[in-house]
Amino acid sequence: MKKTKTSKTTALPKTVDGYLKRVPEPARTTLKKVRAVIRSVAPPEATESISYGIPTFKYKGMLASFAAFSDHCSLFPGAGPTIEFKNELKSFQTSKGTIRFAPDKPIPVTLLKKLVQARIAENERKKGR
């Protein structure tokens, strides 16, 4: 395959640590905190991987993903939690299953925990059917 100026040959990261190493500050520190909060709430059997090129926690299905972009960070907890906590998320830009935030204005820890706990409960209900 011929390389062109527009084609990128950089391989996608294989681990969450590898992903975070590529993220510039201040987003890297913010996403490390998001990761730590998700880990603190997620059940011990939850796994962490790269899915669709971004860090993802899985527990009975997708639990939450997060990513850095050029001008913001995003949390992807799924549509259910985003709708359930829409009033608490009014100061953030949201769309179905996505919450955008500035690296210097992250989602408050208490709210982040609620979002992840809601997703855990949602996944457990779905798997219990």
Give structural notes:
The protein has a single domain (16-122), classed as Aspartate Aminotransferase, domain 1 (Alpha-Beta Complex), CATH 3.90.1150.200. 36% of the residues lie in helices and 22% in strands. It contains four helices and six strands; from the N terminus they run ααββββαββα. 27% of the residues are buried. The chain has 129 residues and is of the alpha+beta class. The longest helix has 19 residues, at 109-127. The protein has a six-stranded antiparallel sheet with strand order 1-2-3-4-6-5. Helix 2 packs across helix 4 (109-127). The chain has helices at residues 16-22, 27-41, 79-84, 109-127, and strands at 47-51, 54-58, 62-68, 73-76, 93-95, 98-101.
Question: What descriptors fit this protein?
Answer:
129 residues; alpha+beta; Aspartate Aminotransferase, domain 1; 4 helices; disordered N terminus
Could you outline the blueprint of secondary structure elements for this entry?
Layout: H1 16-22, H2 27-41, E1 47-51, E2 54-58, E3 62-68, E4 73-76, H3 79-84, E5 93-95, E6 98-101, H4 109-127
Antiparallel strand pairs: 1-2, 2-3, 3-4, 4-6, 5-6
Which CATH architecture would you pick? Alpha-Beta Complex
CATH fold category name:
Aspartate Aminotransferase, domain 1
Summed up, the helix count is 4
Portion in beta strands: 15-25%
The radius of gyration over CA amounts to 15 Å
Describe the structure in brief.
This protein has 129 residues and is of the alpha+beta class. 36% of the residues lie in helices and 22% in strands.
